[in-house]
Design brief:
3 domains, rod-shaped, alpha/beta, 12 helices, Helix Hairpins, 7 strands, D-Maltodextrin-Binding Protein, domain 2, 49% helix
Length: 316
């Protein structure tokens, strides 16, 4: 058997074993050693925070009924709202958007002046005054303010004004969407809902993990790390924005070892099932399935999960 002296899987197994008078001993192994040992029937059971996965051709084993369902989570740099908004307005994305808005205002002002300069008193006295009024009209339109006494009077001016009004609505929505994305992509929101929420993040992932495979399957890149601790330290030191990993393991690590400037956010983008792993055709399989169902029915597994992951964890 496997690995640490405490954890969700350990507690669930020990609850089953103690209730049924089973004696056992633990043998610390790696995941690869454990799976190889099961395949060779060297071990009776493999425990650990290992989500169910596709069985490789090199080893043979079986999963019990899942005792809980979870997903992946993200450790994120924790920043204040003021700092997030300030960083956004000085980001390359915001500067590009502001440049486009300024260019849009100037083009809008020139086109309105061009159509109105001959028949509209607000635009025809002089070129400088006409362009100035056009600029004022354009700024008020972009800011969705009252345009005051400056109105279009020609057919061409009104057509262009209508086009610019619709264009302004699009630009405003783009700006709001961009800012909202900055606030929700794991920085201010309480949960990540889809892959698009993380596609602009500088993400860390554990090498050869299911999280890494998930990102690769969704055409997202990540910087590989060798340990969760290294990843959390990198986020704390502003060297990365996020770390993606198994939700229960990441949540438990942050609960037991809080890292300054780092917070946990659940991500509903991947479902993972947690089970015990047995040798192929094990006589324990059916018996363990029944014991797991009994614990689930009595809500005992939920208590164990919340013990490690916190009372706010939504145990499935």
């Amino acid at each position: 058997m496997k690995i640490h002296d405490k954890g969700i899987c350990i507690d669930i197994w020990e609850s089953i074993a103690h209730k049924n008078g089973i004696t056992f001993s633990y043998t610390p192994v790696t995941k690869e050693e454990g799976l190889k040992g099961l395949s060779e029937e060297k071990y009776d059971l493999l425990l650990g925070g290992i989500p169910n996965f596709v069985q490789p051709d090199t080893v043979a084993f079986e999963f019990t009924t899942p005792f809980y369902i979870s997903g992946v989570g993200l450790a994120l740099a924790q920043k204040s709202l003021f700092k997030i908004v300030l960083n956004y307005f000085f980001s390359l994305t915001a500067l590009k958007l502001l440049f486009f808005v300024a260019l849009f205002i100037i083009i809008q002002a020139v086109t309105i002046w061009f159509f109105e300069r001959k028949k509209n008193e607000d635009f025809k006295d002089s070129t400088l005054k006409g362009l100035g009024n056009g600029l004022w009209w354009s700024i008020n339109v972009v800011s969705l303010s009252d345009i005051g006494d400056i109105v279009t009077k020609t057919l061409g001016g009104r057509i262009m004004a209508t086009i610019w009004l619709f264009a302004t609505l699009i630009i405003v929505n783009v700006f709001i969407g961009s800012l909202s994305s900055e606030l929700t992509v794991g920085k201010m929101s309480s949960e990540i809902y889809n892959v698009k929420d993380i596609e602009d993040l500088n993400i860390l992932c554990l090498d050869e993990s299911l999280s890494q495979k998930f990102l690769e399957d969704n055409s997202l890149s990540c910087k590989k790390i060798t340990s969760i601790k290294d990843g959390l330290n990198a986020i704390s030191q502003n060297k990365a924005q996020a770390l993606i990993y198994s939700e229960p393991l990441l949540r438990q690590m942050l609960k037991e070892n809080p890292t300054p400037g780092v917070k946990f956010v659940p991500a509903g983008i991947l479902t993972q099932y947690y089970s015990f792993i047995l040798p192929p055709k094990s006589a324990l399989l059916h018996w363990l399935d029944q014991r797991i169902l009994e614990l689930l029915e009595k809500q005992e597994i939920k208590k164990i999960v919340k013990k490690y992951l916190g009372s706010d964890y939504r145990c499935t």
